[in-house]
Amino acid sequence: MRLNENILLLGKKVVLVPYTSEHVPRYHEWMKSEELQRLTASEPLTLEQEYSMQQSWREDADKCTFIVMDAEKWQAQPRTTEESCMAGDVNLFLTDPGEPSLGEIEVMIAGLKGRRCVWEGGVTKLGLTKFEAKIGQGNEPSIRMFRKLHFEQVAVSSVFQEVTLRLTVTEHERQWLLEQTSHVEEKRYRDGLSESR
C-alpha cells in the first residue's frame, strides 16, 4: 500500500518497516517451511513469484504490509542488515469496500508484539473500527493469541477450514490501544534508518 511505503514504526520491542524487495529472499526462505505454509494457509511460491507478490502488495490500495524487525537486534549495530533482524510480518487488508471501517489482519510473528502498532495505525490512519482474522482451524496458537486479544469467533468455514475472529474497537479499547502504543515513533522509512540506530 502506498500509504505505508515510507513509514517506519519504532517501538520498544519491534520495528515495523514496509515490505520491500530487500526482504523477499528471507521471507521466501521462511515460506518454504511446510509447517508455516500450513499455519498461514499459503501455497509455495518460487522466488520470482514472491518478488511479484511483494511488488503487487506494495502497489495495491487495499493492502498494508509491514515486516517486523526485532528492535534490540535492529538497534544494536548500525551495520546490522534488516534481513538479519526480520521476525515476521503483519498485514492489514481492506477487504470490504462496502464497509471501509473493517480491516482483516494477518500476523506471522514469533513471540513479538508488532500487531499493536499495526492496529493503532489502522485505527488512527485508516479509521478502522473492526478487525478480522481468518485463521486455519488447526492453527490453535494463532486462535488462542487472537482470543486473548478479545477477538470473538464470528464464523466458521468448513469449506476453507478456517475460523473468522473479529474485534470491534470500542472507545475504551481505542484508548487502551493508544496508551499501549504511545511510545511508538513514526518516522520516514529510509530517513529513520540512520537516525534511529
Automatic annotation (TrEMBL):
Superkingdom of origin organism: Eukaryota
Enzyme class, first EC level, given as a word: transferase
Reaction catalysed by this enzyme: N-terminal L-methionyl-[tubulin] + acetyl-CoA = N-terminal N(alpha)-acetyl-L-methionyl-[tubulin] + CoA + H(+)
UniProt KW keywords: Acyltransferase, Transferase
Tagged with keyword Transferase: yes
EC id: 2.3.1.308
GO MF term set: tubulin N-terminal-methionine acetyltransferase activity
UniProt function note: N-acetyltransferase that mediates the acetylation of the N-terminal residues of alpha- and beta-tubulin.
UniProt-recorded name of the protein: Alpha/beta-tubulin-N-acetyltransferase 9
